[in-house]
Description:
Elements: E1 6-10, H1 15-27, E2 32-37, H2 44-52, E3 57-61, H3 67-78, E4 86-89, H4 110-131, E5 141-146, H5 162-185, E6 189-195, E7 198-199, E8 216-217, H6 219-232, E9 241-243
Parallel strand pairs: 1-2, 1-4, 2-3, 4-5, 5-6, 6-9, 7-8
Helix pairs in contact: 1-6, 3-4, 4-5
Amino acid sequence: xxxxxxxxxxxxxxxxxxxxxxxxxxxxxxxxxxxxxxxxxxxxxxxxxxxxxxxxxxxxxxxxxxxxxxxxxxxxxxxxxxxxxxxxxxxxxxxxxxxxxxxxxxxxxxxxxxxxxxxxxxxxxxxxxxxxxxxxxxxxxxxxxxxxxxxxxxxxxxxxxxxxxxxxxxxxxxxxxxxxxxxxxxxxxxxxxxxxxxxxxxxxxxxxxxxxxxxxxxxxxxxxxxxxxxxxxxxxxxxxxxxxxxxxxxx
Length: 251
């Protein structure tokens, strides 16, 4: 990864997204980071990082469920730069105040399904729609979306989790599609999905109790590993899904 380029992190207000911003600022001493979240004014940790790096970190509002905010964010980025070296889609949803992963068909409801697909699948696709032009330059670039092993159809042995599994499987298909199209117009762009492992964040909190020892990762561990994977990618990897160890996850 270039040390003086510009990275874009979508969904950066907390957890893995916030840690990505922190580590990118540390490992790119002359680079810039553009971070987005739904309400930047309420993102205290991001605001604190911006105060420490006022010349290198910029915050922009973006809600992946509202395409107009994605388009507006792209326009704002275009006023700052014409090229991005790294785009990271981090926003994701597994559960909310009124819903959780379904264990059986009777628990499937339209609104949680819609919400999961809008955030996990449609979000990265719409970001690609509005931001792919920033990758159409002559240098190596990466477009990566946080995926999940449970989105693998061939690896599904337990069933359940309909909204999350389905939306992540859809995201993986979109990743492949985007990689094919960008391969024609941006030959130096690499498009991948990244599985961060089970990370100690709000997303995994309700499901940590029965995890095997050492399976739960701190955000800093996961992010450091993910950025190493990003650094190791080449063009032949485009369209694939990798875990934080760099091992490919089959569809």
